[in-house]
Amino acid sequence: MNSIGKSRTICCLARKDYCSMMMLCAVLLFLFAEACLAAENENREHYKMLSTIEYAGKGQFVNQAEALFTVRKEFLSDDKVEYFISANALDLVKGNWGAGEESQLGELSFIVDKKTRQLSTTEKDLLLLEMVNNRCVGSLEQVTKENIGKTWKQSFNLSFLGKSFPSELKFTMTAIQLEAESFGEMIAVRALSEPFVVQAAREDGGTGSVKSRINAVYLFDPEIEDIYLSISVFEATTDFNGFKETLRHEVATYRTDAAGVSVDLTGLDKKFEKLVRKVGLTTKGLKVDKETTLPGWAQSRGLRAAQVANICAAMACEGASNPVATISMPAARMVAMQGAGQITTAAQLGTISSLLVKSIPGVGGMKIAAAPAFMGVGAGTAGAIAGGSTAIAIGMQQPSRSPSD
Predict the structure, then answer these.
(1) With contact defined as beta carbons under 8 Å apart, do 278 and 215 qualify?
(2) Under 8 Å CB-to-CB from 33, ≥6 apart: which residues?
(3) Distance (Å, rounded) from C-alpha 238 to C-alpha 385?
(4) Is the pLDDT of residue 332 over 60?
(5) N or C: which end of the chain has fewer CB within 10 A?
(6) Whole-model pTM?
């Protein structure tokens, strides 16, 4: 072979090697991109939140909202994890958005030290979460498989919040094992609080007592690492202004895909339905005969008490350092906007119980709502509280003494 032929052969081989190398690089880059995307997706969870705030006194106030939000985890050094919560409201924020637009609620973030179980944040809206978590986390009892089918007590010392809040918040806890077709074994944990009293400002400038209660249920994977559904009902009632007033906050979150379509919980049985009914979701929305704004005591002290109680209930249900329950709670920013009437009520949102039954496969055939008497305010007197309307039976049920309920 002459020198020219050898040169051509070498060039051809070089070109083949080059092409092979480029193809190999392309494949490796594709696989690396896929791995990065998979890792990123593993650290992202999507949820839909439904939140309803109702007040009944001489007038009525109702604000209902739903939001899609994404929870992203970033693993830091020294066993710390940073959580990012970004949310879009699916209804309108007054004065800022046009028809059909979503309102960006921004991103909230906090860091959890899994060694000390302490939470830190620079977000103003999460300072209450940070304080309550860090003071109460030491009181937690771990929720394990040994708790399945049993009830136990969980209490939190809240004296650090001052005299306006109760010195202690007590829960009756119940955990049961369930089976879902898509996810296999699951664990549901319920927290029913004992009634507690919050002090708030009256119209005449004095201070009066507000009787309150929080009930919640959380549906977890068997390791209490992933959450699929949470439901919470807070209610407060008082007559310190000379007439009956009731504040009620129902909130639920459930796991979805990125488009907001619910996961399939088919396979949950009557045990789950019975467990959820004790939480006290209402069957009917409050009828507004005379629209009013949320009064000062309800907007400030009432909703703050609801947030504190929600944090404690979530911690009690989870009973672990990984805050899967906490990150699924409604963002404080959105609840504050609802209470101030800054979020326009979503059109025909309906009750949270009806939306859950309609939206989550496997819950459709269940009767998960019940609104029995609460604090002595039953259906017979609800009409007087709601300005003559008996459209809603206001209340939550007392904790059962039976572990099987």
Answers:
(1) yes
(2) none
(3) 11
(4) yes
(5) N
(6) 0.80
